[in-house]
Amino acid sequence: MRINFALGGFMLKVKFNLVFVVFFVVIVSTFNVRAGADPLWWVESDAHGTIPPEIIRNPNFTEPSPSGRSATPDSIFPSEECLNFDFQGVEFLDNPASQHGYGSVAYPYEISRYEVTNCQYAYFLNEVAAYADPHLLYDDRMGTWNQSGILKITDSGVSIYLVMKDMMNKPVNYVSWLSAARFVNWLQNRQSHLGADTEHGTYDLTQHFSYKNAIRSDTATFAIPSADEWYKAAYYDPSHWDEDSYWRYATRSNFQPEFGPASVNGHFLNPGEFKANYNSSSNWRGTLKGNVLSVGSTGEASASYFGTQDMNGNVSEWTKELICMDQRCGRFFIGGDANSNYAPDGSRYVPGLLLKYTALNTSNDGDDIYRYWRTGFRIVRLRPAIQTTANR
Residue 362: which CATH number? Predict the structure, then answer.
């Protein structure tokens, strides 16, 4: 099989053979990195496990235009009421993996019904980054881009974080993997005397190369989902007639979800069965290439078997999975986003919703190189009585 990549005006031709693969698709996507950042290797592979990862060197990185927004009377200071994650139980222990090797989890756990929102993340920022932000938990683009909604206001060395009108229940984005890890550390430590500590808890982030070496503690309560935890919550359905009990999409369907327009305040306009925010179709706030929508606004009829929503589309989501190639390492994000492309031929495969990606880099905390409006995260809550090395 031959695949052509258009990179920087040159055509790179890659030949390889795939065994037992009847379908293959590659997307070359464009993303943003900070000036002066180490070169990235970009990895793409099929979320269902059938496609070996391919490496693309230095794709072109682009962004939409900034909105130039500033604080308004409609900006809201987030309250603790935001911290309702509406966890959904995931049972059926020792379920088999899908035919592609993902989804087998031997222990009960819970996963947040929705992606982490601006309201939840802004509350976290006010708790841990009011006087200093040494770990860059806040990205300036959170307050200036049309797809984001958190404002930072600093006076006399003290910062507060507000959420813009109509952005409270939109998924937070421009969040690195380490920022997500610090968020769950903070949730873990809110239950103890450690309070606002972000460096200990679920993950030890004080060690050298913490981005690469951080693993989940066996005593963790809150965590970033593993690929198996994420996959099971999204696709597994013990009542499904298919031979391995897994749907192809997280809407309990084997056919590509329906996309649609957004309302003026950023809700999915026509909620119902088999709906997802993708294909750049849901534009509001002046966007032309898609935008995030209120979490869950596609409707409960589009939820997975376990009740999770937006696991396809809206924003891609970080997992704890690590891949290393040629001394470069990165964490996977998965699930597709508002910009993932529709399959115009009516295929059952929507490429962007089936692929998982990562950015590989060599720097210590190099995940901060990758922060984009198309990537966020959700969290899992583990049962303390369950002590298993599978948690790693």
Answer: 3.90.1580.10
